[in-house]
Design a protein that fits this description.
This protein is α/β, with parallel strands linked by helices. The protein is globular, with a radius of gyration of 21 Å. The strands form two sheets. Strands 5-6-7-8-9-10-11-12 form an eight-stranded parallel β-sheet. Helix content is 37%, strand content 23%. The structure holds N-(iminomethyl)-L-glutamic acid (NIG) and fe (iii) ion. The site of N-(iminomethyl)-L-glutamic acid has 13 residues, from helix 5.
Length: 425
């Protein structure tokens, strides 16, 4: 790939073997997940960070504005909208590789959590960690995400479980949104697990968050969403309903960790409350799939968790797609259940383990998660007027993106018209 040296606000990106636009109405359900709008030998014109024109290479190259633009030769690669990773726990203090080895030895995720490990071990470390250290670690991970083709990231708090610490995480996320190029959408997950101080009284903790913490967080514009881990060992459906109802009244959006370990009815709750997203859904049953599919709640599947936890069962992606649900894919990047920040790997798992077609997986990693973050007006597809959030891959056929796994195929990433990663520019 060669980029010309002149400085201006326009780029002509040409020589894309396949320009995968994912253009059209969002969100996508059912068979429409396969419509990824490929333009063969395509090109795009970018101006002031947005897509000014897109289409057949000859037509775009002949536009008068194309002559003045800097040239970026995509070298016959496949070009996609940047991935939208709509579920991460980006700010965490340290790895939990010790627990990884315990699990390999036979201990389960829940057994480790009951013994005071798991999320609570991250909480102990995070409360002591300086904001500057957390920020620089998270920034490093964001650079790795960008290098793998991700351009928008949702990030959750939830490893402090006290007000000062939760504010510390949310402020780190806000600061990262200003200091580095990826867009960060912040979610308050104070209801991750009951903190040690409220271990025997989670109801009081939920009330405190509903009445005191949330209003303050919303006033300070530190979170666009509120999330609850609603599962065995975390919070009940009633507790989740109370906190999420309070969040809704304050005007922020809702997300829910639902049906990961057990079937609790949390998926239905997400649909009932009009949540933007219900995530995990590994244990969801037939009727609940129909309820979710009939709603506008995005079903965000996280196959990296099953993979990392060494589980045989993956979420029933085909049933969700056949029922007409809005299916999305995300990493769930976190130190306990899925330590990969790489969306390409998630696509491979979705295809091989959940039998999603490569085209379905691409839609589920771009426009559908963008919809779940209400960012579909600006991200998730390549269309005139949208931000030039672009990822180019070292392949000639989009199916090779999930097919080659365990390697980084991303050749360059552009965010709002700026090249933020390049293998060899
Ligand atoms: O999405 N399920 C709850 N939360 C995370 C795990 C967090 C952790 O183990 O640190 C998840 O899997
Ligand atoms: Fe999660």
């Amino acid at each position: 790939m060669k980029a010309s040296a002149s400085r201006n606000n326009s780029w002509l990106i040409s020589n894309c073997a396949e320009l995968v636009t994912v253009a059209g109405s969002s969100p996508r359900r059912g068979r429409a997940l396969r419509d990824i709008g490929i333009i063969e030998d395509g090109a795009l014109l970018v101006h002031n960070g947005k897509i000014a024109a897109i289409g057949d290479r000859r037509r775009i190259e002949n536009l008068p504005a194309a002559r003045r633009a800097r040239k970026l030769d995509a070298g016959g690669r496949v070009v996609l909208p940047g991935f939208v990773d709509s579920h991460t726990h980006l700010v965490f203090p340290a790895s939990r590789a010790v627990e990884y080895e315990m699990r390999i030895g036979g201990a389960s995720y829940e057994e480790i959590a009951r013994a005071g490990g798991g999320i609570r071990s991250s909480v102990r470390l995070l409360r002591k960690a300086p904001a500057a250290v957390l920020e620089s670690q998270a920034r490093g991970w964001l650079e790795i995400m960008a290098a793998h083709g991700t351009t928008t990231v949702e990030a959750k708090s939830g490893y402090a479980l006290n007000l000062a610490g939760e504010l510390k995480i949310l402020e780190v996320q806000k600061s990262l949104g200003r200091k580095q190029p990826l867009e960060i959408v912040s979610t308050f997950l104070g209801a991750h697990v009951p903190p040690p101080e409220y271990r025997d009284d989670p109801g009081t903790y939920i009330e405190k968050m509903s009445r005191q913490w949330l209003p303050r967080i919303v006033r300070a514009e530190l979170a666009e969403y509120c999330d609850v881990f609603c599962d065995r060992g975390a919070f009940t459906v009633d507790q989740a309903r109370m906190l999420l109802t309070a969040a809704k009244k304050l005007g922020i959006g809702l997300r829910l960790h639902a049906e990961q370990l057990t079937n609790t009815g949390a998926g239905r709750l997400a649909a009932e409350l009009g949540a933007a997203s219900a995530d995990h859904l590994d244990q969801v049953t037939g009727e609940d799939i129909r309820v979710l599919a009939a709603s506008d709640t995005v079903c965000t599947l996280l196959p990296g968790c099953s993979f990392h936890l060494g589980l045989r069962d993956y979420a029933a992606a085909r049933k969700f797609i056949e029922a007409g649900a809005i299916v999305a894919l995300a990493t769930d990047f976190n130190p306990g259940t899925c330590p990969t920040p790489n969306m390409q790997m998630i696509l491979s798992l979705a295809c091989t383990q959940m039998r999603m077609r490569p085209a379905e997986a691409i839609t589920a990693a771009t426009i559908n998660p963008a919809y779940s973050l209400r960012a579909h007006d600006r991200a998730g597809s390549l269309e005139v007027g949208k931000y030039a959030d672009i990822a180019a891959f070292d392949v000639a056929d989009y199916r090779e993106i999930p097919y080659y796994f365990g390697v980084n195929l991303c050749a360059f990433t552009m965010k709002r018209g700026a090249v933020i990663y390049s293998k060899n520019l």
